[in-house]
Write a structure and sequence with these properties.
The structure is a single chain. The chain has about 230 residues and is an alpha/beta fold. The protein has one domain: 3-Layer(aba) Sandwich (Rossmann fold), CATH 3.40.50.150. The protein is built from nine helices and seven strands. The protein has a seven-stranded mixed beta sheet with strand order 3-2-1-4-5-7-6. The longest helix has 14 residues. The model has no long low-confidence stretch (mean pLDDT about 95).
């Protein structure tokens, strides 16, 4: 796996691309990114849930979550980049759901939340740039309540060997342009979530052959607690 970019470098990149991120990511993925977001929400979020969107970016996934949780729910958006969260706030205010959202900055490899806090913990395309994606996934799992769900979408390797080789060659070029690569590369977190005790509820691979995404939803065993976010 290609070495991750330094967090300060990542923050600078995402701050700079925040105004064009939605368009750029949709274009590069032929809108399969949004399909992944919809699948994550469909298989994890319910009305009234307390939701954390870790690596929330411009808030596309969080807005879907807020719509599904309804007025009794709450969504916390957490991201390294103030620029990305500023875009998310603008979208939330325009959609009328900002009052049910909280915006916080920080490193998702060390989440500032207690164990067993959220009904649902989301991460869409935010594990890919982390230095240690498995550690990030374990953090997501840690802050989910017993009985809660962890739902992620991330870049993964193409299944076909030739397509995988072709993707690697293309990545060599794209990686030289940080504003285009966004520090993303293929990662694998299924084993980490399973080893933590997660029960797989849903698993799928989507997207174009060169840039596939893994969509994964796991349940944290146990009974839901009354802890609030």
């Amino acid at each position: 796996m290609r070495q991750a970019l330094d967090p300060s470098k990542l923050k600078s990149i995402y701050d700079k691309v925040s105004s064009r991120y939605d368009f750029q990511h949709a274009l590069v993925t032929l809108s399969s990114d949004n399909r992944g977001r919809k699948m994550v929400i469909e298989h994890s979020v319910k009305e009234g849930d307390a939701v954390l969107d870790a690596g929330a970016g411009t808030g596309s996934t969080a807005l879907m979550a807020a719509q599904k949780t309804g007025p009794s729910g709450k969504v916390v958006l957490f991201d390294l980049s103030e620029g990305m969260l500023a875009e998310a706030k603008t979208k939330a205010e325009a959609s009328g759901v900002a009052s049910r959202m909280e915006f916080r900055t920080g490193d998702m490899s060390s989440l500032p939340f207690s164990d067993d806090t959220f009904d649902v913990v989301l991460s869409t395309y935010s594990l890919c740039p982390l230095g240690d994606p498995a550690k990030g996934a374990r953090e997501l799992y840690r802050v989910a309540k017993p009985g809660g769900r962890v739902a992620v979408a991330h870049s993964t390797d193409p299944a076909n060997p030739f397509v995988r080789w072709l993707a690697e060659q293309l990545e060599r070029i794209v990686w030289r342009i940080p504003g285009l690569s966004l520090g993303c590369r293929s990662v694998a977190v299924t084993d980490a979530l399973r080893a933590a005790g997660g029960e797989i509820l849903f698993e799928a691979t989507i997207g174009i052959p060169l840039w596939p995404f893994k969509v994964l939803v796991v349940r944290k065993p146990g009974h839901a607690s009354q802890t609030q976010a």
